[in-house]
Amino acid sequence: MTPKITFEEHFMAPGFEKHSEAFLKLIPRDQAEILTRRLGDFDGERIEVMDRGGIDRSIISLTGPGTQGESVEKAVDAAKGANDFLAEKISKNPNRLGGLATLPMHDPEAAARELYRAVKDLGLQGCLVNAPTNGAAYYEGTDYDPFWNELERLGVPFYLHPSNAYVTPHVLGGMPVLQGATWGWGVETGSHALRILFGGVFDRFPDVKLVLGHMGEALPFLRWRYDSRFGAYPMGVSLDRAPSAYFGSNILITTSGVCSHPTLMGAIGEMGEDAVMFSVDYPYEDTNLAVDFIETAPLEDATRVKICHDNAARLFGMPTLARKGVA
After folding, report:
1. Which run of H or E residues covers position 210?
2. What's the rounded Cα separation, in Å, for the pair 267 and 273?
3. Among 193, 241, 259, 301, whose CB has the most other CB atoms within 10 angstroms?
4. DSSP 8-class letter at 9
C-alpha cells in the first residue's frame, strides 16, 4: 500500500460546537453522533483508520465554519484558543499528526500575526480558512496584502475550505438540497478562489500556494475557457499571465470527497501530476472508500507516490519518499 499524507481532515475544538448544530440537525441522529465522536477523537479511531489506509501523517484542521463563524470581537481569542488546543493534541503524537491553523480573517493584520504565532511558536504547518469570513469578506483586496505577505514569507500553504454563502444565490433559492455540499459550497469557494486569482493576489505574491479541495471545486476543468473569455472580456483587469497558468503553480488541489478515476485523470491532465494531492475529508467522508479509490486509480507507481505522499511532503517541507529511494 502506498504511504499517504492527508490534509483535509478535521477536528472540533472546545467552544466551537455551537457552530455545528445547524448542520448536525439536518442529518440522522446516529450519523450526527458518530461525526461528533470522531471530530473529538485524536488518538483512538482516527489513528486506527489511518493505519488501515496507509496514512502516515494526517494534518488536521478545525471543522467549519470555525473562526469564520465568530464575531469580530471574539475571533482573535477564539482562533488562539483553537490553535493552542490543536498544538497540544499534536504534541502527544507528533509523528502521526500535524495541524493547519484557524485564523481571524476578519482583520488581515491580526490574521497575519496569528499565522506567524501558529507556525513559529506552535509548529503548525499552514492554515485552513472556511470562507467567507463574518458574512461577506473576501480576500483579494489590497487590504489583505499584509496577510498574503506574511503567508508568502513563512512559505506555508493556505487551504481555502467551503462554507455557506453569505446570501443564498437566487438560482438556489427554495432548493436547500443544492445550497450546501452538493453544489452551493463549491460555487462559493471556487468563485472566491477566482476572485483571488483575478484580483491579482498571485501577481503581487507569486510564491503563495492556495489549496482547494474536492478536485479543485471543479475549476481545473474550465482553465481553457478562463483564458478564452478573459481574453475577450478583460473588464479592465490585467494579469501577468494567462489565468490558466496560475493553476498548478499557485493553485493546487486535493482529491478530498471526489473518488472518481475519470475526474482524477482529468485533474492531473489539467493541473499536472505535481499539483494534485490525495486527501479524505475525514470524518465526513469514508477513508476506506477514498483509499481504495486512489490505490486502484490507473496511475504509474511513481505518479501514485506523488499524489499520495510526495506532493504534500514538498508543500509542507517534509521528506519525500522519492528522496528516500522508495519511488
Report:
1. strand 210-212
2. 9
3. 193
4. E
Under 8 Å CB-to-CB from 118, ≥6 apart: which residues?
Answer: 83, 87, 101, 103, 124, 127
Give how many domains the chain has, as a whole number: 1
307/246 Cα distance (integer angstroms): 19
Query: Could you report the per-residue pLDDT of 74-90, keeping only the tens digit for each?
Result: 999 999 999 999 999 99
Residue 98: its H or E element: strand 97-99
Range of the domain at 86: 4-324
Q: In a 3-state reduction of DSSP, which class is residue 206?
A: coil
How far is it, in rounded angstroms, from Cα 127 to Cα 139? 14
- Tens-digit pLDDT profile for residues 113-139: 999 999 999 999 999 999 887 766 899
d(CA 19, CA 198): 31
Residues designated as active site: 281
Note if the pTM is more than 0.90.
yes
Q: Please provide the distance, in angstroms rounded to a whole number, between the alpha carbons at the two ends of the chain.
A: 13
Q: Closest Cα partner for 257 from 226, 230, 278?
A: 278
Pairing assessment for the beta strands 210-212 and 158-161 based on DSSP bridges: parallel
Which CATH number covers residue 200? 3.20.20.140
**Buried residues in 154-163 as b, exposed as e (16+ CB within 10 A):** bebbbbbbbb
Alpha-carbon distance of 128 to 66, in angstroms, equals 9
